[in-house]
């Protein structure tokens, strides 16, 4: 079982090694496996959304970063607002501090499995726990349609912002998952756990408030 | 078909509490795109039986029975290709390697007798099987969809697939095996024979064999190797 470490601009210095490992795993996945991004000479993958507004959940097991999630308030520039707004024809691009965009999720190859109690579900559980802790209403963003049934299996409700689309040979949809107690309870039940998966070290700042602080800082 | 009908379907999808009404609703809705029949099923890999993997059966009366009885899944190009791609596809675009075999053409020929001549398939993740496919069938010789219609169909397929996963039993086999059966499979996975396992566990060989048989029955498979694979896949054992 993973523990999910909450990493943001304020406590990142405590996670230098883990964060570097995370960027290398991202490079393995998003450059070499998915071919979504061009190779980077230093073997680390970073994009324009890796700013101080981002909060990361690093899923660590046996001392390794095996999975991850990046959460960005949709009130900040985010992937959907900058690159996929045309896929929100039904509801428009969400821009709310309590709606987080969830991106950059990978699972290292030896932890992928088709079962429902694996690393991916553990990460989903951590994301839902974090979102609920932070008072968020929804998490989501652009997702591969192929994986959407996983949300169904967790008994999660995902609201589409528009139709599925084919882009560069893959099918995507922009959808946001409702954050609530029931969603956390159902994924915990599937995993057979009642405990928290989150670890918070160092200075912690609320997801919603930290965003407001940043805005003030840069105003 | 207009977009709002698709989103209305998505909304209704989440309210269905059983597979039957969901199937009826989906069939009714995709009629607008020229599809009369559909099936949502786990994709059988070689040797797996199709029937227990089917989640929504909207095939014409008689065709499903015929397909299962004749074991068409093993040779049908559409079915074989469904295990090999993650992307939605027209049946007509299945590569010749699988579609142009004599057997596959025979299956396609038989299907026309049941009013199935063309179709569109949407592969999806399944938590129970290798993967799932939602396949829509039309009586038209070749089915055509505008880019917008394709988008509409895939959107509905994805939400139907999500709903079915939500309705299906979430115990992924827990309780399927007893602790003893799990233990026996674990030692089999480690390469131990029944006789060796019996010594390790302090049981008679007959008892060990009995546990293996029960585990095979639980998964509906023929060999202990298959039972080990299934138990690993469902994360019931961690060799």
TrEMBL record, chain A:
It is an enzyme of class 2 (transferase). GO terms for biological process: quorum sensing; signal transduction. Its EC number is 2.3.1.184. InterPro entries: Acyl_CoA_acyltransferase, Autoind_synthase. It catalyses: a fatty acyl-[ACP] + S-adenosyl-L-methionine = an N-acyl-L-homoserine lactone + S-methyl-5'-thioadenosine + holo-[ACP] + H(+). GO terms for molecular function: N-acyl homoserine lactone synthase activity. Transmembrane segments: none annotated. Keywords: Autoinducer synthesis, Quorum sensing, S-adenosyl-L-methionine, Transferase. The keyword S-adenosyl-L-methionine applies. Belongs to the autoinducer synthase family. This is Acyl-homoserine-lactone synthase. It comes from Mesorhizobium helmanticense.
TrEMBL record, chain B:
The keyword Secreted does not apply. The keyword DNA-binding applies. Residues 170-235 form the HTH luxR-type domain. SMART domains: HTH_LUXR (SM00421). GO terms for biological process: regulation of DNA-templated transcription. GO terms for molecular function: DNA binding. InterPro entries: Sig_transdc_resp-reg_C-effctor, TF_LuxR_autoind-bd_dom, TF_LuxR_autoind-bd_dom_sf, Tscrpt_reg_LuxR_C, WH-like_DNA-bd_sf. Keywords: DNA-binding, Transcription, Transcription regulation. CDD domains: LuxR_C_like. PANTHER family: DNA-BINDING TRANSCRIPTIONAL ACTIVATOR DEVR_DOSR. This is Autoinducer-binding protein. It comes from Mesorhizobium helmanticense.
């Amino acid at each position: 079982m993973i523990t999910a470490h909450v990493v943001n601009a304020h406590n990142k210095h405590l996670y230098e090694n883990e964060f570097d490992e995370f960027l290398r795993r991202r490079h393995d996945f998003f450059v070499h496996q998915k071919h979504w991004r061009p190779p980077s000479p230093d073997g680390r993958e970073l994009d324009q959304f890796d700013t101080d507004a981002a909060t990361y959940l690093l899923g660590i097991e046996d001392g390794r970063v095996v999975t991850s999630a990046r959460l960005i308030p949709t009130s900040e520039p985010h992937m959907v607002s900058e690159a996929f707004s045309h896929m929100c024809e039904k509801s428009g691009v969400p821009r709310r501090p309590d709606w987080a965009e969830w991106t950059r999720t990978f699972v290292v190859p030896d932890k992928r499995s088709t079962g429902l109690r694996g690393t991916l579900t553990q990460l989903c559980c951590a994301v839902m726990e974090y979102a609920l802790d932070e008072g968020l209403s929804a998490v989501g963003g652009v997702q591969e349609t192929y994986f959407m049934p996983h949300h169904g299996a967790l008994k999660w409700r995902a609201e589409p912002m528009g139709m599925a689309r084919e882009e560069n040979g893959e099918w995507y949809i922009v959808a946001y998952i409702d954050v609530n107690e029931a969603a956390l309870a159902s994924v915990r039940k599937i995993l057979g756990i009642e405990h928290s998966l989150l670890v918070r070290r160092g200075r912690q700042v609320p997801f919603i408030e930290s965003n407001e602080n940043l805005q003030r800082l840069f105003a | 078909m207009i977009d709002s009908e698709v989103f209305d379907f998505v909304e209704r999808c989440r309210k269905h509490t059983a597979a039957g009404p969901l199937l009826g609703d989906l069939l009714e809705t995709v009629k607008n795109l020229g599809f009369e029949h559909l099936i949502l099923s786990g994709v059988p890999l070689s040797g797996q039986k199709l029937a227990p993997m089917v989640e929504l059966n909207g095939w014409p009366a008689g065709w499903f029975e015929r397909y299962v009885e004749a074991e068409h899944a093993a040779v049908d190009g559409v079915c074989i290709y469904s295990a090999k791609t993650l992307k939605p596809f027209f049946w007509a675009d299945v590569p010749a390697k699988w579609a142009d075999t004599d057997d596959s053409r025979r299956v396609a020929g038989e299907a026309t007798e049941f009013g199935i001549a063309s179709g569109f398939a949407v592969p999806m993740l399944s938590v129970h099987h290798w993967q799932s496919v939602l396949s829509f069938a039309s009586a038209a010789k070749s089915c055509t969809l505008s880019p917008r219609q394709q988008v509409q169909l895939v959107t509905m397929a994805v939400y139907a697939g999500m709903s079915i996963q939500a309705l299906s039993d979430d115990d992924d086999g827990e309780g399927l095996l007893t602790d003893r059966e799990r233990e026996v499979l674990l030692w089999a996975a480690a390469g131990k024979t029944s006789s060796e396992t019996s010594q390790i566990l302090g049981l008679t060989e007959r008892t060990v064999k009995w546990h293996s048989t029960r585990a095979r029955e639980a998964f509906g498979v023929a060999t202990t190797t298959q039972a080990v694979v299934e138990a690993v896949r469902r994360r019931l054992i961690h060799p």
